[in-house]
Predict the 3D structure of the following.
Amino acid sequence: MSKIYLLSKIMMKNASSAWGNKKGSGWKSALILLAIGIGVLPLMLVGVMFMSGLYDGLALIGQEGALLGLGVALVSLAIFVLGIVYVLSVFYYSQDVEHMLPLPLAPWQILGAKFLVALFYEYLTSLLLFAPLLVTYGVKSGGGVLYYLFALLIYLVVPIFPLVLAALVVMLFMRFTSVGKSKDRFRLIGGLLAIGVAVGFQAVIQRQTSGRMDNIEQMQQMIVNGDNVLLNLVTQLFPASKLAALALIGSDSWSGLGYLTSFLLVAAVSVVVFFFAGNRLYFRGVMGISEAMAKRKKVDESAFQKLIRPRSALMAYGLKEWRILWRTPAYLMNCTLSSVLLPIIALIPILSRQDSGEMLASLSAQLQGDEAGGISLAIAFAAFLAMAGANSTSVTAITRDGQGFFLNKSLPIPYPKILIAKLMPGIILSVVSMLLLLAEGGWLLQLSPVFVIYGILIGIPGIIFINLVGIMVDLHLPKLSWSSEQEAVKQNLNPLFTLLASALFGGLAIAGAFAMGGSMTVAAVGLFALFAILDLILYRILVTKGPVWMEKIEA
């Protein structure tokens, strides 16, 4: 067990370089923790308020325990879905498996260490989804010391069974197919399927609930009547979740101890099954995973001349960045396609409602009113900033280079041109998101041409501002020691800073529009002038201080 713990600790340390382990990096870690707390706290507070209201209604009819059953079941489902992604990343595409095989380690020790790493990520998921439910239920029900001890044990054990199930599904698939060697294509197709499933699930739930679940009371009635088909499905898939809920409900009795013991036994058996199956499936499926399949293509003379035609240094470097974004599946999914998918996904909650027509007509009348023009424009501006903040292209521009970043110091290109070239793809993709949002608004809300023109006028300087903030953040907090492209963009906390910046300045823009009145022209001129000035200031800082920051980046 000591080797498993040590190996998992080393793997976690190698995967967490974004936190900084060098002298003087403590303030960076503190800023990251603060950003995470600020970003997550409002969401958790909303969840606690919702669960508290749901508990009060269920308690009136003596069915408050149904809340625990629903929570454990849905958390198990979330852990299973995310577990498939974590198992693929940690077990197969972390590029450390073949380095471990020659070491004096037993196969079960490598499996155990990788399982602990994936389990650690699932604990972070449970911290956001499950911990608020456990605390809320404990406070509302007046739970004693035994309840919180049971809750702690269940919090630690709940992710095990769905993660084992996810690992078995992935190991079976990778063992008996050769798709793992086409890992780039596999990642892209898998990511698109995951997005499709998530969007479809959201649309179905929204469609089913929009017409008949407009308040907490109706949801309470659905739970009590057993109408929640999703809950029944999940509890059948994860029957141990029912044991966990019953253990918490009966934490002050011997029956609760019996349910808890049964739940722990199920988790222990699942771990044994994982090691038994993993020894027979995992290593045969992972061998040769670092190899890649590629097609050979003969390039004729004319095509070769097109490839080598001279370009300016700025254009050549910018095209290199652009092509890497499109050719690398992890970057394509998280940076490029997100610019198109996010505006489309934003339509799902609206179009999937049964009363979407009436709602859009009412919203259009309110936004087009004479007194709300400036406020509506500020809201659109905040949406543009949010889309730019959610796009991680600029805020990972340095990180995406990895150890290859240091080649930039030997290129015959001035540092300011390199930084500008790295900045351009993020700006272009954010502009695409803005234009899609405006097109959707023009179609659904019948926005006037003046509103669209003003939106573009103020949107571009706002987008440039967020992207400038993003690349400056990455210059100060680059994560160059990554083992996979997925880690560079998905296990990178830097995008939180652009999300916070977009939320802060978007909120200030809306507050300013309320304070200044409803004039659309005044709002447009004010926002354009303010962010144009901010852009000039940040641009000057980037081209003067940016080279100095680049020189200070070390391996």
Confidence is low (pLDDT under 50) at residues 17-21, 208-215, 226-231. Residues 7 and 113 are 6 Å apart (CA to CA). The radius of gyration is 26 Å.
